[in-house]
Amino acid sequence: MKVSYFEDTDTLYIEFRKTDIAESRDLDENTILGVDKNGNVCAITFEHASQHTDVRHLIVEGIAA
User: Fold this and answer.
1) First and final C-alpha spacing in the chain
2) Rounded to whole angstroms, how far apart are CA atoms 6 and 47?
3) Which of 6, 45, 42 minimizes the C-alpha distance to 22?
4) For the chain, what is the total number of helices (H) and then of strands (E)?
5) Alpha carbon distance 16, 42 (integer Å)
6) Residue 62 — pLDDT band, cuts 50, 70, 90?
7) On the CB side of 55, how many CA atoms lie within 13 Å of its CA?
8) What backbone phi and psi angles, to 5 degrees, belong to 50?
9) Where are the beta strands (DSSP E) in 1-65?
């Protein structure tokens, strides 16, 4: 998984798996899902991210399988 924040566009991008995105689906006016050819969500984009969360602080928690 990869998390990227683009300050110039205030966009937060979370990539769950590295694969080709076949379709983008608007979840709401600020949230876009990237899905593969099988309909699996592989990425999510949050526009105007700083208005909805504190993008300056990122906490990553992992759970061992």
Assistant:
1) 16
2) 10
3) 42
4) 0, 5
5) 5
6) confident
7) 19
8) -70, -15
9) 2-6, 11-15, 23-28, 31-35, 41-46
Burial letters 21-32, b for 16+ CB under 10 A, else e: eeeeeeeeeeeb
pTM assigned to the model: 0.84
Q: Domain map of the chain by residue range?
A: 2-51
Facing residues of 24 across strands?
34
CB 25 within 8 A of CB 10: no
- Return the pLDDT at 46: 96
pLDDT, tens digit (0-9, with 9 covering 90-100), for 7-61: 999 999 999 999 999 999 999 999 999 999 999 999 999 999 999 888 888 777 7
